[in-house]
Structure to design on (159 residues):
């Protein structure tokens, strides 16, 4: 079998960033998959499930309510390795084109107060596994150390 694209990325040198993971054609539409890498794989601790789950709820809620991006949002969810998230958007897009959206989203997550959207037994299959304070810390860290100082080295996969 061929290696899938995400397994060809050099995780030994990958740093936090916003990378175009792949572009898929579905009919006439292109769907761009972004790798929102929040921790350096195999060199930093991975995120715990509770904060990943919280970020997923906050991020999905933000995106699905965004006036410009809600109709173009296909998916937002965690990577199995817990080092980041995948964001799938309709359109042939670049990391630069979504930087403002990501700054807005991670600012929303960093500043969020109150009950996590969907964090109740009726709405979520594991609603007790949430950690809002740690999710806010991780959102702040990614915002300040990655998104607000994003450069080409952190938008293109390393060789």
């Amino acid at each position: 079998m061929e290696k899938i694209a995400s397994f060809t990325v050099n995780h030994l040198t990958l740093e936090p960033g916003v990378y175009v993971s792949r572009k898929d054609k579905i009919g006439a539409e292109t769907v761009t998959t972004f790798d929102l890498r929040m921790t350096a794989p195999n060199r930093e601790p991975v995120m715990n499930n509770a904060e990943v789950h919280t970020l997923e709820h906050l991020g999905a809620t933000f995106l699905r309510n965004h006036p410009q991006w809600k109709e173009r949002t296909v998916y937002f969810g965690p990577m199995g390795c817990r080092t980041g998230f995948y964001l799938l958007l309709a359109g042939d897009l670049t990391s630069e084109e979504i930087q403002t959206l990501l700054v807005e989203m991670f600012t929303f997550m960093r500043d969020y107060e109150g009950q996590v959207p969907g964090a109740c037994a009726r709405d979520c299959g594991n609603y007790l596994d949430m950690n809002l304070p740690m999710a806010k810390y991780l959102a702040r860290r990614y915002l300040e150390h990655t998104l607000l100082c994003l450069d080409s080295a952190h938008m293109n996969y390393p060789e």
